[in-house]
Amino acid sequence: MIIREIADGKECFLPLLLVGDEQEDMIRRYLDRGRLFILEHDGLKAAAVVTDEGGGICEVKNLAVEPQFQGRGYGSALMTRLIDGYGAKFHTMRLGTGENPETLAFYQQLGFQPIRRVKDFFVDHYDHPIVEHGVRLTDMIILERGLQGGERRKC
Fold first, then answer.
1. Is the distance from CB of 95 to CB of 59 less than 8 angstroms?
2. Which of 39, 72, 83, 152 has the fewest CB atoms found within 10 Å of its own CB?
3. Backbone φ, ψ for residue 16 (5° rounding)
4. What's the pLDDT tens digit per position in 28-39?
5. What is the pLDDT at residue 4?
6. By the 8 A CB rule, do 5 and 35 touch?
């Protein structure tokens, strides 16, 4: 497996990123300011976009695995590399996802814990109903985990 950052031509990866976030204008809100990472293993398998939110917090804005390769460990491998790599500079990694038991369990196995809910996020920000694993998403669940080694600022 090879994981590498893509600095130029990020738009070429929009078809894959749409697997993780179904609306292109939402992706464009963070793609330019985020760092795009891809995982290749006999071809492109997964991608993620991470942003610097300030104050020692980074946020995974998108994690996408090609549908035919989901459940094979590519998402976990990419997330593990991001967790390890971002720990040198950041103390906290955050992400937002829909309230779906499978998705929440995936992130909780990686050490993320729910910290708050954004009511009606998917209803208010998307132009069509978002359905994941047969569940219509309404609220966004924000999860966080601590990172090793990142500097924590004192207030």
1. yes
2. 152
3. -75, -40
4. 999 999 999 999
5. 97
6. yes
